Amino acid sequence: MKNIGIVGLGLIGGSYGLALRQTGKYRIFGYDADPEHQSLALELGLADDILSEPVWSSLDGVILAVPVDVLPSLARQVLDKTNDNCWVADTGSIKSVLARKLADHPGRDRFVLSHPIAGTEYSGPSAALPDLFKGKINIITDPEDSRPDLLEQVTEIHRDLAMEVHFMPSDEHDRHIAYVSHLSHISAFMLGKTVLETEPSEKNIFLMAGSGFASTVRLAKSSPETWTPIFTENKDAILPVLKKYRENLDVFIRLLENEDKKTIFELLKDINRIEGIIDDIHQKHGKR
Amino acid sequence: MKNIGIVGLGLIGGSYGLALRQTGKYRIFGYDADPEHQSLALELGLADDILSEPVWSSLDGVILAVPVDVLPSLARQVLDKTNDNCWVADTGSIKSVLARKLADHPGRDRFVLSHPIAGTEYSGPSAALPDLFKGKINIITDPEDSRPDLLEQVTEIHRDLAMEVHFMPSDEHDRHIAYVSHLSHISAFMLGKTVLETEPSEKNIFLMAGSGFASTVRLAKSSPETWTPIFTENKDAILPVLKKYRENLDVFIRLLENEDKKTIFELLKDINRIEGIIDDIHQKHGKR
Predict the structure, then answer these.
(1) pLDDT at res. B207
(2) I need a surface site. Which of A156, A264, B118, B140 has the fewest CB within 10 A?
């Protein structure tokens, strides 16, 4: 049985703990900077035991599941206090900043940049789910910078969770994730803001809203602790698509002002091409 | 058993047909301008029979489920050929234009302006669902302009479908629906457009996209035939909220350019208030 440490016992770290414990192959040591989260996580069975100082040197691997702005310094500390055959993997949704900040660390080849594409709009230990990762995709970036034997162990862990593992460069990952995930979150947050500003009475929103509104705005429930650093640290990739999105809105506003039905119709018809892609995603992730 | 005509046998009209037939209280006569849709609708059991010319005068009620731009002229024709005790109700998601265009018709008091808040991103007869309306809200506008006995019959039909019926003025309806439904659809369409323009390879979108992307963009699959006229006919209510949405995006872009983490964090935290509203909507409509 391998000893795995998990730092950060919220939605992502907690779900790793639950799922890895179920395989029967791993003993999980958990740590959370918030003592209440840590106790709750143990109660909920997200870890077998607390990750206390004496345990660190005997770990076979560590998963870091903390906000991306605290990742780089935490990653360096954890590399410093783990043994020479212990891998350290993160779970963050941006990769280039971390890759750059770890480049000069002597233990860089024990680090594996990893991003499980899975989540919900909820956060904290009680949001953890045993099957959050099942059937989903895990992306490992810059695999050539990690030691092959340790890379293999991290890949195996994700296959144990029934995930597909894919590899790509960090900058490519950050560019893609900006428009498939970060843009969706920003549009949902701004939609939520617009509706809250327009209609102060929650009863009226509730009365008139259908499932379409709820699904479009759902991500506006996401955690500011998680998403503020993701947005700011990936701003170079996000800003171009966010501006393109704003331009598309500008075009639509002009078409609507001119009541240009023909062009609006053709535009919407063309966008309907997205249907096939969404159906594929639903098959993979289920409908939420 | 009452005889009900349904004009337009797509998602909405077809779902009315299925659900009303199941009550055992109504015999459904269906018509669709597209002969293929009409045959398919009969095959699928969305209607008992075809709504042919001789049937019109014996109907007790007619439901119009067609795009909002063809509604006004159709509504006048249907009022002309139905009997003096036959109600006519629409299902459109905007009301003021129709109310204005029917105001001078001698049969106006047989018309009931009605909007079932239910739907999916699919269209056509095969998209019809027997429980689409169950537990949802139906809004009737300007009820004082309809004959009380006929208004009661239309209300009863919706209660037979297990819907809650609410009443409000047409202009208030159109103003509210602009930001809870129409804005969501526009943001989803523009998000779909932005992603399709940014990433021509569908494989890459699929690989990186989580359920969040799919849920935010889902409405971009909606029918251009239905939504183009909704957008253009409700533009006076839509444009102000769409411009407010664009302003909110502008503010966010500036905050991101300045890496103003503190303000972004506070902004997202405040928007999290939407959580309670979304949870209430999910309870009513289910998660999709």
Answers:
(1) 79
(2) A156
